[in-house]
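Quick question: what would this complex look like in 3D?
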Amino acid sequence: AQTVTQSQPEMSVQEAETVTLSCTYDTSENNYYLFWYKQPPSRQMILVIRQEAYKQQNATENRFSVNFQKAAKSFSLKISDSQLGDTAMYFCAFGATNKLIFGTGTLLAVQP
Amino acid sequence: DAGITQSPRHKVTETGTPVTLRCHQTENHRYMYWYRQDPGHGLRLIHYSYGVKDTDKGEVSDGYSVSRSKTEDFLLTLESATSSQTSVYFCAISVREGARETQYFGPGTRLLVL
């Protein structure tokens, strides 16, 4: 069975600085996807970024980038130039066979 | 906006009563999902559907049933609600973009069972 672990329940960062959220996973699958979702206080689940396991190049979406280490089963999210609107719960998710397994989330607070 | 709506958005009910939550999509995607979100657990899969009348169980399916009689609607039923089913419920659809599948979520339904 797949598992996803987010070991940082809460984090804080100053506005305009960079922060990295950690995620590790365990699987025996070879073909899978990894995702980061953001959940702001509105509770809407918003896709931030995704990574295909077969791609060596790390995904990037504007200020958001990932560090995907397949052998280590690690998938961290880096947020550059943090903004107050980045304050949210962030969930790492593992996807295979049309299903997602979520981590327990990291609550990120961006301080002015 | 992935065209997903959930109804109701909020519901308060009593223990032992039946409850049905509805998820509606406008884009005819094949896969639909129901998750629950609880503090300390992230999102956990309850049931999912891979087509009309085709459903399967997820990680936390006990006490829940689902139905999908039309492509656009996926219903989640709590036959006899219990306080442990107080939660936020999210519906999701899986969107295929080329070779990639990505899940997009509805706005959620907050359910309180007294």
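Answer marked as accepted. Residues 64 and 79 of chain A are 5 Å apart (CA to CA).
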